[in-house]
Amino acid sequence: MAAGTASAAALPASPAGDADSLRRSRILSSKLCFDVPLSKVPLVYSSSYNITFLGIEKLHPFDSSKWGRVCGFLIKAGVLDKMRIVEPLEASKDDLLVVHSESYLKELKSSLKVSIIVEVPPVALFPNWLVQQKVLYPFRKQVGGSILSSKLAMERGWAINVGGGFHHCSANEGGGFCVYADITLCIQFAFVRFNISRAMIIDLDAHQGNGHERDFANDGRVYILDMYNAGIYPLDYEARRYIDQKVELATGTKTEDYLAQLDKALEVAKTNFDPELVVYNAGTDILEGDPLGRLKISPEGVAMRDEKVFRFAKERNIPLIMLTSGGYMKSSARVIADSIINLAQKNLIDLSRCPSTS
After folding, report:
1. I need a labelling partner for 332 at 20 to 30 A (CA). Which of 61, 196, 237, 293 fits?
2. Is the Cβ–Cβ distance between 150 and 159 less than 8 Å?
3. pLDDT tens digit string along 94-110?
4. The pTM is what?
5. How far apart are CA 290 and CA 294, in angstroms?
6. Where in the sequence numbering do the catalytic residues fall?
7. Closest by alpha carbon to 184, among 261, 118, 101, 250?
8. Strand locations in the chain, DSSP E?
9. Do 27 and 92 contact (CB within 8 A), yes or no?
């Protein structure tokens, strides 16, 4: 027996096993999932989310101050007390290595590489320390917000990160204004920290979520429902093969048709998969007039869409994380705020008081 034990001990460890063990260790030692007092509501935001970079952020159609404006509208409407917003921590390198490779993170030390990912060419001209501070730090804070939201959702039933949803980024490649794979990260954290084994991504941004699709290719623990305009970026046909439930929309799809297709899709998802966590990527680039989404959904249609997804999760008692994702018009912030107000009015979320501890 001793000889057999010695022989077994001499066998090399499995590289896959080592990688899983290291990922688990990084997740369990992370500081991102800290305890949040019940006096706070499960709405996560930091003023650090907003990107201001000598005005060149205006060269991209994305409203890089959208996140702060959403919270401003909620506070002004009297539905949110700013003292009860949860401030996340910045995702550290070790946190990011749970999903991303060392080589990919090293590539981000090139300002040229970052400029290509965020689609703002002048970023390439700035020293990388400045790009890290002005562009990548806000994204890392939002990643921290998405991961903390997974903890809050598991504890409180729902959480909204007023940011995140970087669904074009995979473990080894960024793109489309998405530098870090926060959706993949928060699901991997949930698998380890909260011991769940089934997660569903409901991606209703106007664009295909090719990043998380590549990351969870053929992973039976993750069910992906993606409803997107099939004729626009990223046109990632390989990643489309990994979508469990694909709803491809035509350019110009209008509100009534959109909501009818969503109803059908949620019914199918309900019968196909029983998740323990839903990650809802709630892009507002579906709005009529959005220059990149090219759909024709009304602001009221966005509120109804969000309401349907929250109801889908609440009726089945599934924790849900909402990420605000894409949206390329100044009006997006107001639409998101109005939708959150509608969710509160429909008692699908509660921003006004502490949850019962009984």
Report:
1. 237
2. yes
3. 999 999 999 999 999 99
4. 0.93
5. 6
6. 168
7. 101
8. 43-44, 158-161, 199-203, 222-229, 245-249, 277-281, 320-323
9. no
